């Protein structure tokens, strides 16, 4: 048996990139303290899974959940396929899948949804690391 190893790493981003100024306008903050978080962060842009036109801060929890579910599966599948391409492997070669969303919860969890979408092997080992925020990727790598 071979020792576990990472053969490739790939990323995927939502198609919509927003500047900090666009984010500030979307958020609608008028007070200097919250505006300062946007304007002094050093972040130039963010990729978000929201439509550039027609997005409302008043979306329901169900709308948010559906948007997160759709985007996370699409991005996860895209990154996974890219990583397989880089490694010269088919997705059937994947033995283990770890998912680490940091801002929402899905049921079934993201690893299950990705495995179903790509039709990964039935003996696939997987883990879903949740509730660790932005550090979730580090926890998954451990």
Q: Structural class, from secondary structure content?
A: alpha+beta
Q: Give the helix proportion (percent range).
A: 40-55%
How many helices? The count is: 5
Strand order of the largest sheet: 1-2
The CATH first-level class of the largest domain comes to: Alpha Beta
Reported by name, the CATH topology of the largest domain is Peroxisomal Thiolase, Chain A, domain 1
- Summed over residues and divided by their number, the pLDDT gives a mean of 89
Number of strands: 4
Provide the domain count: 2
CATH architect. name of the largest domain: 3-Layer(aba) Sandwich
User: Which band does the percent of strand residues land in?
Assistant: 5-15%
Radius of gyration: 18 Å
- Low-confidence segments, given as residue ranges, are none
Q: What's the name of the CATH homologous superfamily of the largest domain?
A: Thiolase/Chalcone synthase
Q: Tell me the major beta sheet.
A: 2 strands, antiparallel
Principal-axis shape: elongated
State the end-to-end CA separation: 21 Å
Description:
It is elongated and about 60 Å long. Strand 3 (96-99), helix 4 and strand 4 form a beta-alpha-beta unit. It is an alpha+beta fold. The longest helix is centred in the middle third of the chain and has 27 residues, at 61-87. It contains five helices and four strands; from the N terminus they run E-H-H-E-H-E-H-E-H.
